[in-house]
Amino acid sequence: MNLVEVKAQGQQEATLEAERVREIIAEKQVISHQNVWRKTTNIRLAILYLLPSIILFSVFLFYPMFKTVYLSFFLTDARGAAAVFVGLENYLYLLQSARFQKSMVSTSLFVLYTVPTSVIIGLFLALIANEKLRGIGFFRTIFSSTMGMSVAASAVIWLFLFHPTVGIINNFLGLFGIPAVGWLLDPTWALISIAITTIWMNLGFSFLIILGGLQNIDTHLYESANIDGAGYFYQLRRITVPMLSPTLFFIITITFINSFQSFGQVDILTRGGPAESTNLIVYSIYQDAFINYQFGTASAQAVILFLIVFVLTFLQFKFGERKVHYQ
Amino acid sequence: MRKRIRPIIFYLLLALSAILIFFPILFAFFVSFMNGAEVLSRAVFPSTFEFDNYERVFGTVPLMHYLKNSFIVSSIVMLGQLVVCSLSAFVFAFIPFKGRTVVFLIFISTLMIPWEAAMIPNFLTIQSLGWMNSYLSMTVPFFALAFGTFLLRQHFKTIPHELYEASQIEGLSRFQFFYKVVIPYAKTSLVTLGIYGFLTTWNMYLWPLLVTTNDMKRTVQIGLKQLQTVEVSTEWGVVMAGVVIVILPTLILLFVGQKQLQKGLTQGALK
Amino acid sequence: MNHIELQHLSKSYDQSSFAVEDVTVSIEQGEFFILVGPSGCGKSTMLRMIAGLEKISAGKLYIDHQLANHLLPSQRNLSMVFQNYALYPHLNVEENILFGLKVRKIKKTVQRQRCEEAAALLGLTDYLKRKPRELSGGQRQRVALARAVVSEAPICLMDEPLSNLDAKLRGQMRTEIRQLQRKLGITMIYVTHDQVEAMTMGDRIMVMKDGKVQQVGTPLEIYNKPKNLFVATFIGAPPMNIAKAEVDRLNKQLILKNEIVITLTEEQLFSLKSDIVYIGVRPEQMAYGKGSNRDAHLNVSLSNIEVLGNETLLAFNVGDDIWKAKWLGQWPLDINKRTEISFPKEQLYLFDGKTEETLFSPVWNENVLKEVLAGESR
């Protein structure tokens, strides 16, 4: 008998067995005379408990998301009601609009400035705060402190630090003979200023998450590496970073998404200026919708934002999940 | 030799990083005690620690009102999230039914929708509900939270299944099991979610900006923006006094709950 | 009086194979009934069907002569002790013990009284205010038992309750549980994979394998008259020695692999239907030396010797199988030296080569033994 035949026979036996099982069950099962009410306990209970979430998600997330897509195909009146169907006109308009192009470029640059820096500094902080030293708890608390800082408070503080007359950053740079920088006034520096503020705000969160990831790594790995005589940086490269990859992947995605959603720092520090150099996408949506009452184009931009975040989150699930289980 | 140098290097790095990171906060604290002249002279330390600026900030904007509003809104959101999320997390951990995976996937999918992308229709909804300038608009939409549901579900799942079975044999109803066993068991992750919810709501900026138009219902974050526009040219000391008052509650909360938060967030994020 | 009755009870999770198949048994009031078998044999599934934690796919379950298939767990009037004890970590010992009573809204004074009694019974009086995590494994186990005791349920189900304890404690708790059950007169259904627990605790044992009942009987019945090869090897430690043998009907003998020959009695030969059989010998039946001519003897080289103080385990190869002999006393023999070992032929078990059913087993009659003992004590 060859392998195929053996396999076929095995399958046949399995189906015969399944048939026998079903027959016996059909013959000997005791049918409950309880009513449908008790049989559906689980589903009724589940619906009851899930209802608040489902309603809220429907009303404040799914419905508005569809509505956003819908509105993006219309010109709207000042109250936000759809007036004229224009198809993809809003999108075409956006793609041709120099303002939107500039906004996309600024947003991309902004993301490029903030994401790698936030994660690398966060990783550095987590690494030095993961040492077993006396008083390390104090440093951990300090490092995580920016997580408690609101956008508004952070932006106001940095507004002061960047200030052309009273700001002390230029003062500090002057100590090293570096000429004063027009932080919020110069179009190139304005975006960098906002990025610096954002990175600072991100640090607390990325530090906390990466530190958590570090503490999840099995210390036996380091012990055996120590016995093998591996140095600090060798261990960092060969153990820490590979073992930390799911955490890093997660924090990169989160920081990415957060960067795309930045609003408060722009509103307080630059209001999108100078020369629209800091008109990031959410700020642009806000202006179109709530200042200029262009709900159609604002919605089209919101749809684009959604697509970007959607793809990023999807990638996180797709690639993050597998690596995470590996841990 | 190397053994002795190593901690010194790390202490140096730690101290330097700590100064750089904490400087803006510390500096804001210092400036809040400075008078106009000191600010203009770009001093780093105030000459005196007097509370003039703090007294004045309450006169400049209705900060007490804002603090009260923020406190109410954050507390309501925190409680709402705990109730709504723990209910749904309980289903995903303990009540199996056909199609649960699908519902779970729908919950996951909400993570893919940025709040800002849904904000325009939401604003219109709030208007038509007549919820403008109301606590409702700043609280109710945030009760359901996929992240919170996962965080709690993750912890609920660590409850040994035997506890559930034992409770069945002892005749507990599902709801009794939920509040007598699951809730006390998962206390720590509820605290984590509570801190997280309070922090994020307290720090919310864009949404309160949209749905509040009068001082009676504004939150502290909008207050800061106001303060900064009103006072910008002259009184930085007063502005910073406002900043310090606004960040104090969240910083204290963070310092107290830092360990909890770190453990909880890492768990929720990575498992 | 029968208390729990199972009629053709079956469980299938996927509608295409049975996890438990066609179990029919009746358990008496006050009986200590043991379900034993290797992991995955369906014993826990059986217990959980009786508890109502698992739906019954087919067959009937009677508790107190009432059809109980669709009763909720709490309606079945039973208590259950779990492997991981299932203690509520946020409650102290007292609250844990009284948890079920509180749910059933039993009077405060009664609660107090029952808790005190149970705590005294299990030696927990000093620990009532502690949290489970402050207790040792054995103490946690006692709390779980106390919870079953205070419920005053006439049936108690236990699912491998001792498997998380160390060997010494396990021995101690075996005795305690058995004494407790006798004292309270409850009907106990006890799941274990440990044949020692099964042998020492049970009034009756049900041996299961692959979802099917292999044998039900008293511990001695199962030990002395196993129904098949599986039961014979599962019960007893070290397990029964087994080897395949060919039947040589002409010369009335069995031929083993390395040309060991065992002559058979007429009776033994008569019981053999097929030409291939398994022979089985309990390790304790092995003796040192050639023995008399009524014994079968083997000339073997020892592969391992474990001297345990009061007894010695010797291992040697018979064909491809490793056999063991268990002798009382200390036998520091030379390894790899050829040794003569023998066993009485009438102690031989014979199993069918195909069906693995027992064909022949040594004479054993419990009643005779009892009479002899009774006569002696008189």
Word description of this protein:
The complex is a heterotrimer of chains A (about 325), B (about 270) and C (about 375). Helix content of chain A is about 75%, strand content about 0%. Chain A has about 325 residues and is mainly alpha-helical. Chain A has three domains: about 1-30; about 30-65, no CATH class; about 100-325, MetI-like (MetI-like fold, Orthogonal Bundle). A two-stranded antiparallel sheet of chain A has the order 1-2. Chain A is extended. Helix content of chain B is about 75%, strand content about 0%. Chain B has 14 helices and no strands. In chain C, the strands form four sheets. Chain C has a six-stranded mixed beta sheet, sandwiched between helices. In chain C, strands 13-12-11-14-20-21 form a six-stranded antiparallel beta sheet. Chain C is of the alpha+beta class and about 375 residues long. In chain C, helix 2 crosses helix 3 (about 110-120), helix 2 runs parallel beside helix 4 and helix 3 (about 110-120) crosses helix 4 (about 135-150). The mean pLDDT of chain C is about 90. Chain C folds into two domains: about 1-225, Rossmann fold (3-Layer(aba) Sandwich); about 240-370, Beta Barrel (OB fold (Dihydrolipoamide Acetyltransferase, E2P)). Chains A and B meet through helix 3, helix 5, helix 6, helix 7 and helix 9 of A and helix 1, helix 4, helix 5, helix 6 and helix 12 of B.
